[in-house]
């Protein structure tokens, strides 16, 4: 194809495109015109419909408001209905159905809260006044019900029932063996620590929830003080009655001071049982029910428990204080230790029971009594040591046996060792030193004080031989008692050996003082030495001198036999040992003398007048020494 043709074709296409674009523009303009008219019409329609929309919205809003009003009316009517039902229950009183009555009070309280927050309601003030008056009457009836219920189920606990709650070993009906007399104090203490106590039922468990609910309602109504007074007065009185039935009574220092010791000792024993029963059973039980009934009323609970128990605790502790302040005497030491022991035993219970701030006075009073008992016991200990050394009793021990003071002191020390655990605790109340060393020191001082006193008493004897026999008997008794007791471990083997030597020294002194003179009768100054009978043995001695020797020996031996048969050596081993020691000196000397000089007498007139005894006779008569026989017994 030629170039002209191509140009022509291109031109025709350009004309076609231009015409097409012109048509498209016309269509677009038409559409814009049509759409513009639609927008105008829609605006007019919207303007025309706006009033209708406003009326429709108002109708819908009105319907919503009507629904809300109906619902509010339903709620108010429901509250009126609930108030009417609660009123009916409250007017019937709590006796028929206490739980329903309590529910009615809760409902009434809820109604009051509702109307208080909806005061826009026209009759709300009148309804509120009526509901509050009704609520006040309900709470008043509730107080009466609480008082009545608590009174009806609060009865003093009989002693027999309390005894049944104790471990078997602590019951009064137990035999002495059951109560632990066959056991050491340490074993008794372990048994007590492991003992199980069964708390008594002070208020039936089924009643406790009701009392708790009543207490809660009273507290919520602001009647805490009424609740406090009712609970305190009823439970305090019952606790005091329970203790009185046991025999607990308030005694002053003067009352205690006037009592005979036997009566007072029995009362102290009872007090120890009363303290244990009170702390572990009665007061523990009071705390338990107080915590249950007043649970949730913490502002009252601790103060209530404190005032319920205050007077009873005061009565119990006042007796302990009266004993601790009374005139000290040695026999009181053991009961003081018993009292101190029970206070120590109950220390953990006391700390637990009276842990609150409201109970601080009772807790401190108990602690103060423990300290005072410890102090009085320690002072009594010191008094005893001094009394032993200064004891001036004129109790005569004519036969040289063990003095009552010795047996008293030794028994006292034995009892002390039964309390050694308690004593060590007592020492630590005042001193941080080694309690074992302190106990050893105290025991040593008491033993020394006793020996000093015995030395003084021994000087009352006119016969120096009896002085030595008396000291020998008493020191031997002390040593033997120590060796057989726990005191040996504390005083030590050295102490025992030293005092055994002292016993032997007194025995030797007795022999020397008592028998030296009579042995002189069996020696002849100037006689030729030798053991055979013959002229060489007697050549320098006259018959008259030998007669006098035999005569003097007979007289002195008979006097010794008469006197010393009335003396006593109570320990059989010591007695035989002393007789043997005398026989070992006397009999060989007598046999030797008789063998040497007897023939001089036997060949003369009336030899039996001078040689009155054989060695066997003397041995038999020596076996009658130290038997404590009376003169009449000797003559039989």
UniProtKB/TrEMBL annotation:
<dbReference type="InterPro" id="IPR046364">
    <property type="entry name" value="Exo70_C"/>
</dbReference>
<feature type="region of interest" description="Disordered">
    <location>
        <begin position="168"/>
        <end position="189"/>
    </location>
</feature>
<dbReference type="GO" id="GO:0006887">
    <property type="term" value="P:exocytosis"/>
</dbReference>
<feature type="domain" description="Exocyst complex subunit Exo70 C-terminal">
    <location>
        <begin position="270"/>
        <end position="624"/>
    </location>
</feature>
<comment type="similarity">
    <text>Belongs to the EXO70 family.</text>
</comment>
<keyword id="KW-0813">Transport</keyword>
<keyword id="KW-0268">Exocytosis</keyword>
<keyword id="KW-0653">Protein transport</keyword>
<dbReference type="Pfam" id="PF03081">
    <property type="entry name" value="Exo70_C"/>
</dbReference>
<dbReference type="GO" id="GO:0005546">
    <property type="term" value="F:phosphatidylinositol-4,5-bisphosphate binding"/>
</dbReference>
<dbReference type="Pfam" id="PF20669">
    <property type="entry name" value="Exo70_N"/>
</dbReference>
<comment type="function">
    <text>Component of the exocyst complex.</text>
</comment>
<protein>
    <recommendedName>
        <fullName>Exocyst subunit Exo70 family protein</fullName>
    </recommendedName>
</protein>
<dbReference type="GO" id="GO:0000145">
    <property type="term" value="C:exocyst"/>
</dbReference>
<feature type="compositionally biased region" description="Polar residues">
    <location>
        <begin position="170"/>
        <end position="181"/>
    </location>
</feature>
<dbReference type="InterPro" id="IPR016159">
    <property type="entry name" value="Cullin_repeat-like_dom_sf"/>
</dbReference>
<dbReference type="InterPro" id="IPR004140">
    <property type="entry name" value="Exo70"/>
</dbReference>
<dbReference type="GO" id="GO:0015031">
    <property type="term" value="P:protein transport"/>
</dbReference>
